[in-house]
Amino acid sequence: MKVKSSASLFRFKSGITALLVLASLCCHTVNSQDNASGMKYRTIMVLAKIEQTEIKKQFEDAMVNALKQKGYNAIPSYANVTAEDLGSTEKFIARIDTLKVDALLAFTLLGVETRVVNTPADL
Length: 123
Prior knowledge:
By secondary structure, the protein is an alpha/beta fold. It is 39% helix and 12% strand. The chain has a single domain, classed as Rossmann fold (3-Layer(aba) Sandwich). It has helices at 6-26, 53-69, 89-98; strands at residues 44-49, 74-76, 103-108. It has a 3-stranded parallel β-sheet with strand order 2-1-3, with helices on one face. Helix 2 (53-69) links the parallel strand 1 (44-49) and strand 2 (74-76). The longest helix has 21 residues, at 6-26. Residues 1-12 and 24-33 have low confidence and may be disordered.
């Protein structure tokens, strides 16, 4: 039987936060919104394939905010795409076309690792 403690959930959320900081630092640093073909992006959608709804929202919101700080128009998938839209490629493409999305950043959580590190109390 697995028991989830609030401490392990905190560590998981801290890990997600660290990942978001790293991802935002790795974002494209060019101030222009040009893509490889020289055209401007209209809208970038961030889609996180994470089952936990709250963590999905936090991740997508953080990436959208990082992109907006760099001058991009970005939207989260959770607020714009339904489960039905994700049910087929045709429906998904039709939905993102109505939203004028021309770039998609998709993330998948591959796994979570928890480590316990003991340190002296006086550090």
